[in-house]
What we know:
Two copies of one chain form a homodimer. Chain A has a domain at 10-38 and 100-207: P-loop containing nucleotide triphosphate hydrolases (Rossmann fold, 3-Layer(aba) Sandwich). In chain A, 45% of the residues lie in helices and 18% in strands. Chain A contains eight helices and nine strands. In chain A, strand 5 (73-79) and strand 6 (82-87) form a beta hairpin. The two termini of chain A are 35 Å apart. The A-B interface holds A 123-124, 126, 129-130, 133, 152, 155-156, 159, 162-163, 165-169, 179-180, 182-184, 186-188, 190-192, 195, 198-199, 202-203, 205-208 and B 123-124, 126, 129-130, 133, 152, 155-156, 159, 162-163, 165-169, 179-180, 182-184, 186-188, 190-192, 195, 198-199, 202-203, 205-208.
Amino acid sequence: MLSLANKGLLVVLSGPSGVGKGTVCSFLKSMNPGINFSISATTREARAQEQNGVNYYFLSKDEFINKIDRNEFLEWAEVYGNFYGTPKAVVEEQLVQGKDVLLEIDIQGACKVKESYPEGVFIFLLPPSKEELRKRILGRAADSPETIKKRLSCVDEELAAINNYHYVVVNDRVEQAADKVTAIIKAEKCRLSRNQDMLLNRRRSIID
Amino acid sequence: MLSLANKGLLVVLSGPSGVGKGTVCSFLKSMNPGINFSISATTREARAQEQNGVNYYFLSKDEFINKIDRNEFLEWAEVYGNFYGTPKAVVEEQLVQGKDVLLEIDIQGACKVKESYPEGVFIFLLPPSKEELRKRILGRAADSPETIKKRLSCVDEELAAINNYHYVVVNDRVEQAADKVTAIIKAEKCRLSRNQDMLLNRRRSIID
């Protein structure tokens, strides 16, 4: 396990599907040019406008499974027959270089990452209300009432995972949510536990 | 003891004398009109431009001592024959009303406040460097080398108290320091532990 003390910050932005993680991340990118956004690997086919190494790392199923076997993912999952995962090497390299890395991942993935990186900053993005959540879940696909019910009960399960997180940000207005995430990142850099080396040097210098 | 869960945030900004707490607070006031800055009580005489209830609550020594006896201070201290203290009632009233309150106090005072309010947000303001600190200590008064040595050794003692704090902010540029304190306040409002009531209501509403 990589120690993150005095290294870059690993920020995990997560939340139920449909909560708007992607939209908040788009705002974050424009607000925080210094943050590196982790690029996921996937076995699904690239869409017309998507570029390898920009939107995703596009891998064959064999390549992906080999990487799983070599423990090269921070977290991975199979969704509707396609694999998705966060490549470990790229993230760790950036952290060691003192760069902050943001992962935008689902709740299961975030829980896996937390096992290896408890020092990461875990932010749970919450929908603004029950009505809005229902609307988003209903709006996403023409699902049967049963599927909708299942999705809603999933959300309930997912909400229970919130206790694994350090922060909760309500995504009512995307600019405000992104602003809060930015503040969280800035604040976390000031946490005492992340500044032990700096403090040790300062104390030495004062009693010189 | 007052529980601060789901109430206003108690923010304690502290640090060695000469670090620039007052200057940072002036910036914070202009950046955060929503924050209430606690007004200290003192027995020292009001200076020409100072107003009672604005700069300080000016009290007689008897009044101050009576308040100490009635446990009406969050913290108090005697400095060069004058008493200084933070009146408890005003602070608690604002917190209960959901208002954030910022205390700008010395390190001993902050440690006392932490005993009663561990849920408060404790921020340590650090001087930018040894040279700058020496310069500030030297610049403050025409002290003897012995007094300067004593002050510097005091700073060392004071720095040891930093482990009582949650955050450390280096006051190299006052605007940046104030910006970091602002981010810390914003981030702390998103902490999971401070949003339990909101989350309980949300979970109820989702499984309705």
